[in-house]
Specification:
- With about 240 residues, this protein is an alpha+beta fold.
- The chain folds into 2 domains: about 5-70, Phosphorylase Kinase, domain 1, CATH 3.30.200.20; about 75-235, Aminoglycoside phosphotransferase (APH), C-terminal lobe (Aminoglycoside 3'-phosphotransferase, Chain: A, domain 2, Alpha-Beta Complex), CATH 3.90.1200.10.
- Helix content is about 35%, strand content about 20%.
- The protein is built from 7 helices and 10 strands.
- The protein has helices at about 35-45, 85-100, 115-125, 145-155, 195-210, 215-220, 225-235, and strands at about 5, 15-20, 25-30, 55-60, 65-70, 75, 160-165, 175, 180-185, 190-195.
- A 5-stranded antiparallel beta sheet has the order 1-2-3-5-4, with helices on one face. The protein has a 3-stranded antiparallel beta sheet with strand order 6-8-9, covered by helices on one side.
- A hairpin with a 3-residue loop joins β4 and β5 (about 65-70).
- The longest helix has 16 residues, at about 85-100.
- It is globular.
- The two termini are about 35 Å apart.
- The model is unreliable at about 5-10 (pLDDT under 50).
Length: about 240
């Protein structure tokens, strides 16, 4: 990328590295990782809707897998340049997520419904991928297996299905001059109850900004969340 400027984009602690050009992103992972295959498939379906990047090129060699996309304006909401306007950043984050949730789900081939997410959580526990220290402090009184048992006992009805981001955070929402610009880190995107995304972004806002961010977010999002569903999805999120 002749126009490249080395500028890391944090996508929530994933293995993905990014070079930001003036007109493109170049994303790279180790060759054996699947994140960029998942990301490319979802971007191809989204085809630039809700401010998602358009895929230009994808490839793999013995060491790396890469994905080149058009650049979306702006920078992650977690960037220091947005810290001076926390309220505006939170509101713009809500606008970006709502734009994705407002897409028509018909024909979306990707699922984050409970049969998928509960199976994923069970698999991670069975594989030993989760230990008590991987849970947030509030949940460490449980082992991951016990927390899964509690979650699995009372799953909510899936009555509010939307196209969910799957990993929303201040790292994966792009803001440009105070306005929602787009979304990145979409390898988990799929159809699910909107409260999955709402729980995940609420957890991130609480950790990074504080409880005052939540009324701002939900006011800008334009819907009152179901508190019991938020709580349940927060528990499930510990295991994903």
């Amino acid at each position: 990328m002749g126009d490249a400027v080395a500028a890391p984009v944090d996508v929530g602690g994933s293995t993905t590295g990014v070079v930001v050009g003036r007109r493109r992103y170049r994303w790279t992972t180790p060759a054996h990782h699947a994140e960029l295959d998942l990301e490319r498939d979802r971007l191809d379906w989204l085809v630039g809707r809700a401010g998602t990047p358009v895929v230009i090129e994808a490839g793999r060699d013995d060491r790396h897998h890469w994905l080149v996309t058009e650049r979306v304006s702006g920078s992650p909401a977690s960037s220091g340049e947005h810290a001076f306007d926390a309220i505006g950043t939170v509101a713009a984050t809500a606008t970006a997520i709502r734009a994705l949730h407002d897409l028509v789900i018909d024909g979306c081939p990707f699922s984050l419904r409970l049969d998928v997410t509960l199976d994923r959580a069970r698999g991670r526990i069975d594989d030993g991928a989760l230990g008590p220290n991987d849970l947030d402090p509030a949940f460490r009184r449980f082992s991951p297996r016990r927390l899964f048992e509690l979650v699995n006992e009372s799953p909510p009805d899936e009555i509010d299905l939307v196209v969910c981001h799957g990993m929303p955070s201040l790292d994966t929402i792009l803001i440009d001059r105070g306005n929602a610009a787009g979304l990145i880190g979409l390898e988990a995107c799929g159809v699910a109850d909107r409260h999955l995304d709402l729980a995940l972004i609420a957890r991130d806002l609480l950790a990074r900004i504080g409880p005052d961010a939540l009324p701002v977010f939900f006011d800008a999002y334009g819907a009152d969340p179901d508190a019991m569903r938020i709580d349940w999805y927060l528990q499930l999120a510990q295991l994903l």
